[in-house]
């Protein structure tokens, strides 16, 4: 579904990504794991084409999207939930969700997906007229994910969905990610909580200073001594 080949990104003299390659197959949850500054967020930004790439190729469902404008990538069904949520604080919950569907004209489908979002995130329905900026951190993360689902994604890029959340909310968010995947959406997940990410993912790639130094099934990596020592506290 998504094939990334020899992807490079630099910020001035700093090489953030050094020719990484990976793939995401339809129906999978794939996670990118690494410490701060490893290049995880940069990878998602490069796939979405919201930063300039230094080299490489990106194919999405067989189509070369390497140089495609970001707004056209969204129309292809590749949707990005950025780190920090980036909700529209001065709009209501409903208005934020409607913004997620801005590329769509199928009113019946939009209405159906709005109800789907409310079934996944009942608290959003309870706060439908509330301004997004007044929501708690967990509710804002739910809104960011709900807004992305309103675009009817084929592939969902999730950047640090558990950041800043209480442990009970982290569990809830990861359960919802699994539900979204089971309903047919493929997911590429960037996450600091390596244990939680590996517990739901099919496969994983380990990023270190812009290079993928290890990959494999999540179960293999959960039991890999070097991964446990570096990322799982053991």
General description of the model:
The structure is a single chain. The chain is an alpha/beta fold and 234 residues long. 38% of the residues lie in helices and 26% in strands. The model has no long low-confidence stretch (mean pLDDT 95). Helix 3 packs parallel to helix 6. The chain is globular, with a radius of gyration of 17 Å. The strands form two sheets. A six-stranded mixed β-sheet has the order 6-7-8-3-9-10, sandwiched between helices. A four-stranded antiparallel β-sheet has the order 2-1-4-5, with helices on one face. A hairpin with a 2-residue loop joins strand 4 (55-60) and strand 5 (63-64). The longest helix is centred in the C-terminal third of the chain and has 16 residues, at 167-182.
As laid out across the biggest beta sheet, the strand order is 6-7-8-3-9-10
Helix content: 25-40%
Beta-strand share of residues: 25-35%
N-C termini distance: 34 Å
Order of helices and strands: EEEHEEHEHHHHEHEHEEHH
What Rg do the Cα atoms give? Answer: 17 Å
Number of strands: 10
Key words describing this protein structure:
234 residues, 6-stranded mixed beta sheet, 38% helix
Describe the secondary-structure layout.
Layout (H helix, E strand, L loop, with lengths): L1 E10 L2 E11 L4 E5 L6 H9 L6 E6 L2 E2 L5 H6 L2 E4 L11 H8 L6 H14 L1 H5 L10 H13 L5 E5 L7 H16 L3 E5 L3 H7 L2 E6 L2 E7 H5 L2 H7 L3
Parallel strand pairs: 3-8, 3-9, 6-7, 7-8
Antiparallel strand pairs: 1-2, 1-4, 4-5, 9-10
Helix pairs in contact: 3-6
């Amino acid at each position: 579904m998504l094939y990334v080949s020899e992807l490079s990104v630099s910020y001035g003299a700093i090489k953030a990504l050094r020719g990484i390659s990976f793939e995401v197959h339809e129906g999978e949850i794939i996670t990118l794991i690494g410490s701060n500054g490893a290049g995880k967020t940069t990878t998602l930004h490069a796939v979405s084409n919201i930063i300039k790439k230094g080299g490489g190729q990106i194919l999405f469902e067989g189509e070369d999207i390497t140089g495609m404008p970001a707004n056209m990538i969204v129309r292809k069904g590749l949707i990005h939930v950025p780190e920090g949520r980036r909700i529209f604080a001065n709009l209501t919950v409903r208005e934020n969700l409607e913004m997620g569907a801005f590329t769509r004209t199928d009113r019946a489908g939009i209405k159906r997906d709005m109800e789907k979002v409310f079934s996944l995130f009942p608290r959003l329905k309870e706060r439908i007229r509330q301004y997004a900026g007044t929501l708690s951190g967990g509710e804002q993360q739910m809104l960011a994910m709900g807004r992305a689902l309103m675009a009817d994604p084929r592939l969902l890029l999730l950047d640090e969905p558990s950041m800043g959340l209480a442990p009970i909310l982290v569990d809830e968010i990861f359960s919802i990610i699994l539900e979204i995947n089971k309903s047919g959406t493929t997911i590429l997940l960037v996450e600091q909580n390596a244990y939680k990410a590996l517990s739901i993912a099919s496969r994983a790639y380990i990023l270190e200073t812009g290079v993928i130094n290890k990959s494999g099934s999540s179960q293999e990596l959960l039991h890999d001594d070097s991964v446990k020592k570096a990322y799982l506290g053991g």
